Amino acid sequence: MSCSLLEFCRLQELKTVRDYLFHSHKTEPNEEKNQTDNELSWDTSDWESAWDSGEYNEGKATSATVVEEDTRGQSGPWLQDCAVSLSPCSDLLVVAREQKAVFLSAKWHTDDSGREEMTLDVSWTGILSTEEGECVNSCICIPLASQKRSSTGRPDWTCVVVGFSSGYVRFYTESGVLLLAQLLHEDPVLRLKCRTYEIPRHPGVTEQHEELSILYPAALVTIDGFSLFQSLRACRNQVARAAAAGSDTIQPPPLAYKKWGLQDMDTIVDHSSVGKSVMTLCVFDQMKNASILGGFNASVKGSPPAMSQYITVGGGPYTGFYYAVEGSSQPLLSHVALAVASKLTSALFSVASGWLGWNKNKNEEEVAQKQKPKVEPATPLGIRFGLPDSRRHGESICLSPCNTLAGVTDDFGRVTLLDLARGIAIRMWKGYRDAQLAWLQVPEERSNWQSSVSAFHPSRHALFLVIYAPRRGILEVWAMQQGPRVGAFTVGKHCRLLYAGYRLMGVNSVTSQGWQLHTQQVCLLDPITGALRTVNIPFHLALSDKKSERAKDMHLLKRLTAMLKSREVSPDMFENEGKSVLLDIRHPSIKKQALESLLSHKNAPISCLISITSTLYDDLKQEDSNEVDTTLLQLCCSQLKLLQVYTDIQQLHSGADIESCSENDSLKDIEVELCRVAPTLQRYAQLTSRPSVSFAQDSHDSPLPAHIFLAQMEWEEHGALKVTRRSETEWNQLGNFLFWGCLCGKSPIQKVCDTLQQAGICPQQLLCLLLSLWLQREKAVLQKTDEAVKNLHTLLITLSNMKGAVEESWDPQSISPWWQQVRSMCIQSHNAAAALLASFVAHRAAKVSITSRADSQLQSEWEAVSLELEQWVVCVRQLEDVLVLQTLLLVAPPQGAAGTPVAQCSIKSLLEGGTGGIADSVSKWVFRHNLDPERLKAVLQKSEDKEADGKLKDEELQGGEEEKEKSQNNAYRTAELLVALCQRFPHSLSPDLLFAHCCWEYVVQWNKGPEVDIYTTRTTTAKNEGRYLCWAVEHLKLVSSPHIQLGICTMMWSTFIVKRFSAAAFLMEKVGKAPKDRLCRRDVGMGDKAMTSFLGCCVQLLQILMEVTEVLHKNRCPLSFISYYADSAVEEVPAPELSVEEVWCGAEGPASIAELALEQRGVHYPLVQHHCLLGSLLHAAMTFNLKVKPLSLFDNKGKNAFFRDLTSIQLMPSGDIDPGLVSLRQELLVTQRLTGGHHCVWSWAPCCSSTLISCDDTSSVSFTTRDWTFRLRR
């Protein structure tokens, strides 16, 4: 593992940024192509001189519309002329030049391959300068930490700080909004730098406070980080409130800062604020400093005073060291005015003056420009010492994260490393003109156990210096302090090395606990490609030099990894390079890693792997037994054995020595079983053989790569070979490699099994691999059923005869674990045909095996034989049932039917589905096929009524059209299949049970979409709207058991109907007429036409409920509002007894719909009659567009009884009716002209019929109350 450059972000709009900042390219419109030469002329003196000097070598312009306005804009390194700053969180990039600036914010995009990548897109552009003639000199992006407790280290927002040539320092948001501006000094701002809080890694290390430092030609201003953080937050909040309130004025809070006048240095171009002294001075150093500062008579204090260190670079001297001594206690703000005259405390925490608002009017701006704010004088600060070099001039300084080292560049092309504690230069590099520096601090990698053991011990950190030489186009990484160059990368000559040197502002020792700061230390920006790359350096490079064995081993491993990644590698090169690297590596751990890399290569030839592993094994055997690594030796030995097994199996599959399967009685019995289920298997194969799309690499015929075989094999301590199940795909690939040739008859079964047994693979795992392959490749098995079944029988017999397969001393009273494993896999499989064939074979193989074992034992053990075979009989019967059911479910529905996924069933899923699981699966199939209730009834009666068979066939074949003959034949075959299924499940698919489940399935689907038609999946016209509910009622009518009908009605009403029914009643009562479509959709959830159909279905449902309730009572009488029906009565019709087939009696799961229906309580007959009357009124009003308030036709008792539980006893209306209510009813029933040409005729007649309401068609509706009846007709 070595250094690497990793791209983590990309700039998409670099050309837009350059054009905006430089105006280097301007495209003229097409209609102005014929301009004169004078209009297209420009000054080329500078350009021609640059061409002659050889600095630029540009091609001839190919377009006359390109105009070069700026020499610097057309040159390559345009980014070097800009002030560039990248946020440490890499979410904001600022590029500024002269008066303009561009802000780029991070966004996430998904590329064509579906991989997410981060890009920096332009989020704001504008002009930053407000004073005449001022330009941007420096800028930095400071992310401010969030104050929320839920924050985990991400910034709340980012502040952009910009220094101008006029001396102003302005603070902006990410969107370019000016927060505040301050004139701290009247000279141009040279450099802005920031220092944030870092968690001390060692005890006793002084905590560094946050700080923003601003360098001027002869002054240095430092702003306390805490004060700046609070001021920026306050300004941002004020700006937000002002924008919300429409105001344009803000009042910035005061800002505390210090201002030092740097003396005794000719020129200053850059600086670094080191902070407080990191190391405690010894007594000698303390006396030396006192003598230098105070002379011979200076006094030495017991403890050195606190002081801040500042390093400057420039000229005269080349590097300067400044120390600002601080008092033992910080002065308060109230003492500042009294301490201004003192040189030691001058300008300490001075209140910033001269705030500039970003929203003043024109007159105020002119006044502000004429009257500059007052600038506080600087406190003189003399230089302590420096590095004098009259000819050398420093250009930049970069402080290390630990604040002990600094890198300095100069005009001689040198990079100097300074020891800040001792004030000396300790190292120098030459040949780096215009170099850019950065630091990288890398923590030591720790494993989990090392982290737990060393929880209270800080981890080690390695320090590296990154140097970018633009003249040479190279990026180098050097280990500190005297380490070698550990990495070098060839990059472009116009890149920009971005190093912030700080993290989030606003963090302290309390808020940083538990945070994980996601920041990039060093980034390289390439303006040609727009790529942002970070440097990745492993920790171990700091511990090694050029002669380190570990570094050499890592280099060899890197070379081997690069070779493996290459696409074009010949087998000879692969083998030779692998042997060379493995023999040259010295460390066993790295050698093991290299061997594992070779063995896991997906394109490695098996012969090369065997040769490489053998060479390494022989080399290890020749070493001293005390020095050789036993783990590596065992790995080589085990991998050689596995490679040999892989080679043997491969040779057996490719050989021509094929065994012939002998015929025996068991195979004849299997053939009889196959003939019995052949028609169903043929139909199942036709339904499952539909074409599908698959990838070539997923083909079953592709050979198994050696690395997948090795990855799933693991040697145990006692020498056995264990197969590990990593994924379902790889598991099936392994089974296909081992046994598919045997199942196809292309490989010798006995030899393959002997090879696997000698390898030490457990027979149970081989059996699992074989059955998984058999069940997974069902389509291929059904193509050659007879041959595959014979080979499977031979394989099962051979595997069961292996040692450890069937235990010699298994309990005769229990089930054999070996054959139970086969049954378990067949029970859980969704491939019904393959599972049934496997059960046929396993049943006969088990019978042969058990019979042969029983012949040699006592007769008393025949009970175990019968118990085992009985389990197989039950399993085979269940799988036959599942095959018929799955075949029916696979039948495709007609075009335009409701699309629901095909249910995959197995014995396990049906048993877990409860007693109603089978009926539920068939009811979903009925719904998918839009099977008419009457047609379903005819199919169910087919086995009982022979005449129905002919009738059904005539209905299917009617019409006589030739183009429909094929579809009609398929429909008839499907009906035959449904009949066969009902015959196999006489109890689970009894007519009442199936009709009940179909009714429930349709009402559930109706509840999901009340307006969805049964023939399409889109909203339909009035003719078919609500057909799901209508067919649910039709299925309910076909249930013969009144107990089940009563329960289904009650559950339908309480679960799905009553809520929408009450909403429709209240809506009609509110509007006083039939509501419009919009109101129906808003309150009831369906359109007006669908609501009309819904109310009609409600009336039919309540009629069924009343009829069933009447049948269940012993004494029948004319329907009237008498209290008899409210009392419990003895039921005349006994409740049906629900049962299941004997082989399916072990079902455990939810109760069926019929069982739930039988558990429902009886209803209150007058309450049902009361609701039926209301439903008839609502249906009539919607059908004939009547103006009526239905609830107003009932008294208070009647209103209170509505929408209650039908099983509860409610206080019903009495015979004494209020005259006002009678008049309202008479007004409704009086003959009147209705809208649309309809008439309402009412007649007074006694109630003599048990049927309350009759709905012949949409032309008439009639209903009866206690003493009046009326009919609505067209």
UniProtKB/TrEMBL annotation:
Q: Where is it located?
A: Cytoplasm
Q: Cytoplasm as a keyword?
A: yes
- Which segments constitute the Rab3GAP regulatory subunit C-terminal domain? 765-1230
**Mainly localized where?**
cytoplasm
- Domain of life assignment: Eukaryota
Task: Provide the Rab3-GAP regulatory subunit N-terminal domain boundaries.
Answer: 78-498
Q: Which UniProt keywords apply?
A: Cytoplasm, GTPase activation
Q: Which GO terms describe its molecular function?
A: GTPase activator activity
InterPro entries annotated for this entry?
Rab3GAP2, RAB3GAP2_C, RAB3GAP_N
Q: Basic and acidic residues bias located where?
A: 946-967
Q: Which Pfam families match?
A: RAB3GAP2_C, RAB3GAP2_N
A single Gene Ontology CC term: cytoplasm
Q: Where is this region: Disordered?
A: 946-969
Family as reported in the entry's similarity comment? Belongs to the Rab3-GAP regulatory subunit family.
Q: What is this protein called?
A: Rab3 GTPase-activating protein non-catalytic subunit isoform X12
* Organism for this UniProt entry: Betta splendens (Siamese fighting fish)
